[in-house]
Amino acid sequence: MAAGFTVDMAGAEGMRAGAWTDGEEFVIRCDGSEETAARVRLEAREGDRTAVEIRPVTVAEVEAGLRAGGTVPHPALALTDAAGAPLATVRPDERVPWPRRFTVTDAAGQPLCAIARAPSRFGRGHWRIIPADGGPHLVGRDGTVAGWAVFVMLLPLWLVLFTSSLLVALLTFGHVAELLSWSRPQSVAWRRRGAPPWTGRVLTFSHLRTGYRRPGRAPLDERVAYAQAALHHFSRTHHD
């Protein structure tokens, strides 16, 4: 049995529509339930290590900062349960818009894991969860093997359709200008390092279902799963 959940915008039913409003936060909902399992607030951390000021920010503020030049540091993510009790905090290790590494701590400030992000250049980008207890790393690569196989097989067909739609747009002087979009596979499966290709999954993201699942045999710590999912959702929505 696998436990599934989604990361949505509070009050947005999982859809991005129009301008963000003040007080926004992410909510985590378990499959088959409209109840909130956890909340994710964004926090700006300003100052040096001896005097850090923490203040809540909204998605709208973060996006406005990115549009203004992209120099605003990545916010921290504070996870709480439905009642508001702290679960975990995700802090970027670098004061840059898109850090490569984050530290995840529990409600008492003890480390749970580190999360590292290697962006895609010429190969597949990936996420890496590094447990604080020294356990095996968990690696989630962009796109599954099956997804990339389908992508490669359908790419020639998409090129034909894209060229056709481009010709229609030119011949109609832009009156019919809907071009077909295409993107790389976006589903992700986090596996224990060294596990065979079809085993060892501890967390999966399905692009078609826009949801996450935790396999039941060796479930990933719920706090770590929520932290990675929230970071992945934020990055996928605003950066990737």
The helix-and-strand class reads alpha+beta
Instruction: Outline the biggest β-sheet.
Output: 12 strands, antiparallel, barrel
Distance between the termini: 31 Å
Number of strands: 13
* Overall pLDDT level: 77
Describe the structure.
The protein has helices at 59-67, 145-171, 222-238, and strands spanning 3-9, 26-30, 36-48, 51-57, 76-81, 86-92, 101-106, 111-118, 126-131, 138-142, 188-192, 201-206, 211-214. Strands 1-2-3-5-6-7-8-9-10-11-12-13 form a twelve-stranded antiparallel barrel. A hairpin with a 4-residue loop joins strand 12 and strand 13 (211-214). The protein is built from three helices and 13 strands. By secondary structure, the protein is α+β, with helices and mostly antiparallel strands. Residues 13-20 have low confidence and may be disordered. The chain is globular and about 60 Å long.
Features:
alpha+beta, 3 helices
Q: What's this, in brief?
A:
The protein has 240 residues and is of the alpha+beta class.
Topology:
Blueprint: E1 3-9, E2 26-30, E3 36-48, E4 51-57, H1 59-67, E5 76-81, E6 86-92, E7 101-106, E8 111-118, E9 126-131, E10 138-142, H2 145-171, E11 188-192, E12 201-206, E13 211-214, H3 222-238
Antiparallel strand pairs: 1-2, 1-13, 2-3, 3-4, 3-5, 5-6, 6-7, 7-8, 8-9, 9-10, 10-11, 11-12, 12-13
